[in-house]
């Protein structure tokens, strides 16, 4: 999909040698007929280049986007995120500072790529933003929605008292918990464990607190809460392993096993933690149980082989140590 080449391709259509009265339309003027007026006053025009899926971005959501801003007749963007592998999550109403861009985002769906032509009152105003944006500049933004999370719903829920939260349907609570978990997973998937560890753990602990505060009325609700807690425990256990904290990893792995004693991920996490702690017998026990559930899982089998070798080496070293101690003791008795 062409992005930065848009202005260049439009400029080639303009004949700069033509008299002023017969001059071809400017690049932005050529775009306007292809665009829709999304608010009715001509201040924000939109062209959908690639449609998205699902519902549009909700108000106060947190969005993950790639975007580039262009001035007319400029081939290079004055700002862009397209060079970033992991653009930061931006909260509507806080991090998106252009009114036109925020209003445009609210019309977009996940996966959508669109162009927005913003008049000055919806962009940088009559003053512009020297030295990059001239006064009263019309700007073009190309935006792709990579993902979004309904963080507005989370914000509203967390500001409630515990009593109010307990009056909300269980389905809403679980939606909030899943959104929080999605935030944590995004940090984790970017492999920024140390930079994001506090936020990653914070959102998971927030989710666990919300679930713990719930006054359950039935066995079914209790089971639904346990089901929601299980992936939270597994995620934190894995994060602690990556942060080289096997004791904490084991703590949350065991919490997961309290909910589902045959869960292979929990058994595997505990096996990894015990291996790091050099508790080979316990590691072997967990991994053997996991192998019984998934006998052909290569990760389980490979780790079990590693544990078995480490356990054997440990026993051999222990045997040699005791033999040495016995020889020294025997020698001292003879003397």
UniProtKB/TrEMBL annotation:
GO terms for biological process: piRNA processing; spermatogenesis. Keywords: Isomerase, Repeat, Rotamase, TPR repeat. It comes from Pundamilia nyererei. One of its GO terms (molecular function) is Hsp90 protein binding. SMART domains: TPR. SUPFAM superfamilies: FKBP-like (SSF54534), TPR-like (SSF48452). Transmembrane segments: none annotated. Residues 60-149 form the PPIase FKBP-type domain. This is peptidylprolyl isomerase. It catalyses: [protein]-peptidylproline (omega=180) = [protein]-peptidylproline (omega=0). Pfam families: FKBP_C, TPR_19. InterPro entries: FKBP6/shu, PPIase_dom_sf, PPIase_FKBP_dom, TPR-like_helical_dom_sf, TPR_rpt. Belongs to the FKBP6 family. It comes from the Eukaryota. One of its GO terms (cellular component) is cytoplasm. Its EC number is 5.2.1.8.
